[in-house]
Each structure stands twice: as structure tokens, then as C-alpha cells.
Amino acid sequence: MLDIRQNVEGVQAAIERACRRCGRDPREVLLIAVSKTVDLERIRLAVEAGVPALGENRVQEAKEKVATLGHPVPWHLIGSLQTNKARDAARIFDCVQSVDRLELAHELDRRAQAAGRVVDGLLQVNLGEEPQKGGLPPAEVKAVLDQVAALQGLRIRGLMAIPPLVPDAEAARPYFRRLRELRDAVGLEHLSMGMSGDFEVAIDEGATMVRVGTAIFGPRQGPGLGRPPGGSPESGAGVSQR
Ligand SMILES: *Cc1c(COP(=O)(O)O)cnc(C)c1O
């Protein structure tokens, strides 16, 4: 059987090693366990093993999970959000990482205020300007941020990106660096980047949130996003390294 506790500890150890290598404090990096398609029992095991946050990509699926599990740790939305689901999202999630258009930011703000909540948000950036992917073109980030910075119900805390699929973790580095430069240019705190196959490189480039699914829960049914963990000698989720 898949040992979730061991996987969580392995990923945490890999995060610590990656931080040590580049002189960062591991407490600056939030591990988000991506629990999309994962059943409640295994999510509970991950929470018991100490994951500090959970990530889901569909509002409906998250709604059902939150109804049962509650909020033992914060829930992050990491998948694209239709405007007509903003009401549910503003009630369920502590952070919406996929804010990718002005209209959505305003709707989340309105719905969060109506629910008496303040929701954190990240602006999602389409670094590769890939038409099939969500996210703002890098050139629009500043203008959008200026218009949402003062919202009361949605607080934009940083940037998030899913870089184009590349053959190995090192090849993602220029995208991670670009996101950090953008973040620095607009003066935000958080950088959500890096998944199972490349989170160590992302940490080296300044990630403050890494989104790790496969390396914690094992392979998902159906096509996933990103490279499998352990694809290159430098990367790997640390589940078998010590
Ligand atoms: C599924 C998903 C992840 C996790 O991917 P793994 O390769 O399984 O770690 C991270 N970010 C987003 C946006 C995802 O949809």
C-alpha cells in the first residue's frame, strides 16, 4: 500500500534540502498537497502526516470534501474557475490561486464580502502564453493588479503559474525565474510554482508555495499535469532519496 505519511515526510525533507542548498528558510515554503481525485481517507492521512494546506482544482469536488472534512488546514483552489462558481469558491477556499481575469476578481470579492469572509488570491500568469491554458499574459499583470489591489474581500498576495510542459525540471527554471522577476516588479509576497517533478528547482528560484500531488498521493487516474516525480537526477520528490 502507498504510504502517505512516508511520502509526506519525503517531500518535506526534499523541501528542506532544497532550501538549505540555496540558503532559504524552509518555513518560507508552504507545501500544498494537491488532493484532486484523492479520496477522503487518503486526504485525512496526509493531514495527519502534517501537510499544512490542501489544493483542489474543481469547486464541486472540493465542496463535497470540505463538507465532510471541514478546514483542518487551508484549502487552495488551483484550477480554473468559472465566474458562475465564484460564490461557492469564495465560501469554500481560503486562497484562490487561479485569479486570471478582472471580472473574476471582482466577482470573488463581491461573493467573499457577502459571505463575511476575506479570501486570499493569487494572480495566475500564463508564462508560456499558451492559448489552452488559463492565466494573464505577463504584460497584463501590473494593470490588473492595480485594479484589484484595494479590494476588501479578495486580497491578492502573489502570483501563480503552471509553466509549459518541458522535458525536465531544469528546463522549467527560466519560467520560474520569469515569474519571480514579475512578482518582484509588482511587489507581491507569494510565488506559487513547482509541482512533483520540479518543486526543488522552483524553490531554488524563490517559490513560497509548491503544489505537490503525485509525490504524496501516487499517480492519479487519467492524464495529469506536469512531469512524473523523479524524472531527473537533480529533481525527484525525495521519496527514495535520503
Ligand atoms: C495537478 C496539479 C498539480 C500537482 O501536480 P503533480 O505533478 O501531481 O504534483 C499542481 N498544480 C496544478 C495547477 C495542478 O492542477
State the domain count.
1
The CATH fourth-level homologous superfamily = Alanine racemase
| Share of helical residues | 25-40%
Number of helices: 9
CATH architecture: Alpha-Beta Barrel
Structure description:
With 242 residues, the protein is an alpha/beta fold. The protein has one domain: TIM Barrel (Alpha-Beta Barrel). 39% of the residues lie in helices and 16% in strands. Strands 7-6-5-4-3-2-1-8 form an eight-stranded parallel β-sheet. The longest helix is centred in the first third of the chain and has 18 residues. The C terminus is likely disordered. Bound molecules: pyridoxal-5'-phosphate (PLP). Pyridoxal-5'-phosphate binds next to strand 8 and helix 9. The site of pyridoxal-5'-phosphate (PLP) has 17 residues, from strand 8 and helix 9.
